[in-house]
């Protein structure tokens, strides 16, 4: 085989894998959006076949031989091809380190854990979930040992979600956040609370749907390549390539801001996916590089742009057109204050911009201590409640609204949470950099998102997964990542809002 032939084979292999991904993705999307209730088993049947085929294709002898051949001829590959081979081989080598029977056992455990977690959350029954969660943590420790015996197991999982991340970096990052956000929140709590009555009322879902489409167009989403659905938990997914992206939202008829910010958040994820360079279509590079970078984009649109007074003033005529009665006594300033009201709360996914990272920190602390053997799963609820009191000042009334609220642990996403907080901080520093060359406020006032999107496309989106997250970020920034840019932004914004 010549290198040219091998490259052609690699292209064909990736096209095939993306086709399998496309088919599985649309089946999943259909399942969580519009499929009739009784069709889950039918879909599961097809998904099982597709995932087996794609597993065989990814890890089969022919694939491994092809990738190893290309790896040996690295010098004859360009940077893009080298990255593709590196990423595909990395996945295979990881998988090869886990004994087959353990891998199968893990799949079984995850199905059971997720199922039991649902029941435990509904019935506020942590003891029911406890033995499963113990097994999950133990299994993840064991897998880290197989895949990276030289590494601390929690460092391994942090790095899996955000390449280059480890405890040392997390400690530094979170201690900066903690030292600035906790006192800031205390000042906010002591100040007069902002009135948020204007976002509450009666807002029919059909009208909110019109608002969603208007928002997607306003922030520059190409509606010919991005669809909108409704689900219990909003998310973004691409199907097969960046030419077909879907976002979802959930309408709450008593509060239009809830879905509005879900749409803008998921819209930020969608813009990132849609903005990957066309040369990466149908390759493993076609998509965002990490959760942290992805969140930097979604939170950028949701908070830095979407929760600004300029943006709310821009969309205010549309809000009034859709909800003339409900909003007849409101001004853009009223809505601005309402959507920026900050207060300690129990549920992470409903938390405001200021307190959000404190929720993330609680989870990071707990994961870290469990991995270090300093905390048992049995003591997890009590420790969760203690940390919520310490960081947020709230009393957790039950485990449903406490330790059982997130699906992450039952889904095996351990080490995932820090990327949410990192993304917020990345976004704030990207905004500062963007403002050096783009008049962001003027773009928001005139409703012209193109200069903003062009900057993000040129510096972040077009690279897909080509560059490592930190390399991508620091090249865009032209400096080192510095979380104090984010805490400075929060201090400035919330001291002005609350008048201290
Ligand atoms: Zn997100």
Characterization of the model:
This protein has 500 residues and is an all-alpha fold. It has two domains: 3-124; 167-498, Neurolysin, domain 3 (Orthogonal Bundle), CATH 1.10.1370. It is 63% helix and 3% strand. It contains 20 helices and three strands. It has helices spanning 3-32, 40-59, 61-72, 79-97, 100-123, 126-147, 153-161, 167-190, 205-218, 256-274, 291-305, 309-322, 332-339, 356-371, 380-392, 418-434, 440-446, 450-459, 469-477, 484-498, and strands at residues 226-230, 236-238, 245-249. It has a three-stranded mixed sheet, with helices on both faces. Strand 2 and strand 3 (245-249) form a beta hairpin. Helix 10 (256-274) packs across helix 11 and helix 14 (356-371) crosses helix 16 (418-434). The protein is globular, with a radius of gyration of 23 Å. The model has no long low-confidence stretch (mean pLDDT 96). The structure holds zinc ion. Zinc ion is lined by residues 265, 269, 295, 298.
- In terms of DSSP E residues, the strand content is under 5%
Count of individual domains: 2
Instruction: Identify low-pLDDT runs.
Output: none
The small molecules bound here are: zinc ion
Strand order of the largest sheet: 1-3-2
Structural class: mainly alpha
């Amino acid at each position: 085989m010549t290198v040219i032939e091998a490259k052609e084979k690699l292209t064909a292999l990736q096209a095939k894998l993306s086709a399998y991904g496309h088919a599985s993705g649309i089946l999943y999307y259909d399942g969580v959006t519009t499929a009739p209730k009784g069709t889950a088993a039918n879909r599961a049947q097809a998904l099982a076949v597709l995932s087996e085929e794609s597993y065989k294709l990814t890890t089969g002898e022919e694939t491994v031989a092809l990738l190893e051949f290309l790896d040996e001829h690295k010098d004859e590959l360009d940077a893009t091809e080298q990255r593709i081979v590196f990423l595909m081989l990395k996945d295979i080598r990881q998988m090869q380190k886990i004994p087959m029977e353990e891998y199968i056992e893990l799949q079984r455990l995850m199905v059971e854990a997720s199922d039991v977690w649902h029941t435990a959350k509904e019935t506020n029954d942590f003891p029911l979930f406890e033995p499963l969660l113990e097994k999950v943590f133990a299994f993840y420790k064991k897998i880290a040992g197989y895949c990276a015996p030289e590494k601390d197991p929690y460092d391994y999982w942090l790095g899996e979600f955000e390449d280059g991340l480890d405890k040392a970096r997390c400690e530094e990052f979170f201690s900066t956040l903690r030292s600035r956000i906790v006192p800031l929140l205390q000042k906010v709590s002591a100040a007069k609370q902002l009135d948020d009555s204007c976002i509450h009322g009666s807002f029919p879902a059909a009208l909110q749907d019109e608002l969603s489409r208007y928002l997607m167009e306003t922030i520059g989403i190409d509606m010919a390549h991005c669809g909108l659905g409704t689900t219990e938990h909003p998310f973004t997914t691409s199907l097969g390539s960046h030419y077909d992206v879907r976002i979802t939202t959930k309408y709450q008829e008593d509060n239009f801001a809830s879905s509005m910010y879900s749409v803008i958040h998921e819209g930020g994820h969608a813009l990132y996916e849609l903005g990957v360079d066309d040369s990466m279509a149908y390759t493993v590079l076609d998509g965002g590089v990490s959760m942290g970078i992805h969140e930097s984009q979604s939170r950028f649109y949701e908070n830095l742009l979407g929760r600004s007074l300029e943006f709310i003033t821009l969309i205010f005529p549309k809000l009034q057109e859709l909800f003339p009665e409900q909003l007849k006594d409101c001004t853009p300033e009223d809505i601005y204050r309402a959507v920026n009201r900050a207060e300690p709360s129990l549920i992470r996914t409903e938390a405001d911009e200021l307190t959000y990272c404190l929720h993330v920190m609680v989870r990071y602390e707990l994961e870290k201590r469990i991995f270090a053997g300093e905390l048992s799963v049995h003591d997890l609820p009590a420790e969760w409640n203690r940390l919520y009191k310490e960081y947020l000042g709230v009393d957790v009334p039950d485990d449903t609204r406490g330790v059982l609220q997130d699906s992450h642990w039952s889904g095996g996403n351990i080490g995932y949470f820090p990327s949410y907080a990192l993304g917020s901080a990345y976004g704030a520093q990207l905004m500062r950099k963007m403002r050096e060359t783009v008049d962001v406020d003027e773009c928001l006032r005139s409703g012209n998102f193109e200069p903003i999107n062009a900057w993000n496309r040129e510096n972040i989106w077009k690279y897909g997964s080509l560059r490592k997250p930190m390399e991508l970020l620091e090249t865009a920034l032209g400096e080192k990542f510095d979380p104090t840019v984010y805490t400075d932004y929060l201090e400035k914004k919330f001291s002005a809002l609350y008048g201290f």
